[in-house]
């Protein structure tokens, strides 16, 4: 059937060079576009931001270094205990309970020593309880000191703080030795200060007596003595009389001068009869010593006059003078500072 001449065939859809159909753009007025309905009252508020996740608190940082394991020797007991208490004090946030402190302290004992055996027995006694009770820190301190700091050690240290004079020692060297005894003595501050005064070199002692006000603590007294000693060494120079390179050599020379000042008619080793003191050891004569006996007494820190330990000839009570040490004046009692 023939088409009418008035009817025009529809144009084919446009194609791009590759043969795909292009979309047809419709030019519609905006009023004809339908949008989704809006809720009453305007747009809803934005959701709140997500809260950050809670982070766990980090463990506290351990300060300082744990003390070396204790070997059970009495001369290091106080030093070990002080280091242990200081370690727990600076880390109080970690060791905040008696059980933590005691259980941790029981691990600081050296393997293969009697101290470790004591700690092991202590642990066994604690774990045998029901419930387990580590006790208080004060109780553990008392048990430790009763075990490793015997009374005789403390008594000996008390004697040493009174019988360790400075004499020819450099102040720093002497104070290191004297303070070791002071720590072991475990006496009050007044007793330490009294013993410190008596043990000092005569010039330093006299200078400290002039202080006003007088220090009330041993640390302050030691600091003043150190300051005076430093000034004396600075202004006196290397010729200061009582400063020797080897204090023990000067000490022996002083002892020998003291012995030679009082010769006895009895040769060494001969019994003096009624005048003999018990416990004198190798002979009671006070004449010149043989080289062997002199060396033995020096090596064992025995008095070169009577042979008894814990004092020297300058302080020997058997010397025929009215007061020990009065016949020899230390060179250190020279000019005032």
Describe the 3D structure:
- The protein has 337 residues and is mainly alpha-helical.
- Among the domains are: 74-149, no CATH class; 153-239, no CATH class; 247-315, no CATH class.
- It has helices at 77-90, 98-105, 114-127, 137-148, 151-162, 171-185, 189-199, 202-209, 218-236, 247-260, 291-299.
- Helix 5 packs antiparallel against helix 6 and helix 8 (202-209) packs across helix 9.
- The longest helix has 19 residues, at 218-236.
- The radius of gyration is 45 Å and the shape is elongated.
Strand content is under 5%
Distance between the termini: 145 Å
> How many β-strand stretches?
0
Structural class: mainly alpha
Order of helices and strands: HHHHHHHHHHH
C-alpha Rg (nearest Å): 45 Å
Report the uncertain regions. Answer: 1-5, 239-246, 263-285, 321-337
Q: What characteristic shape results from the CA principal axes?
A: elongated
Mean pLDDT: 74
Q: Please give the share of residues in helix.
A: 40-55%
Largest sheet: none
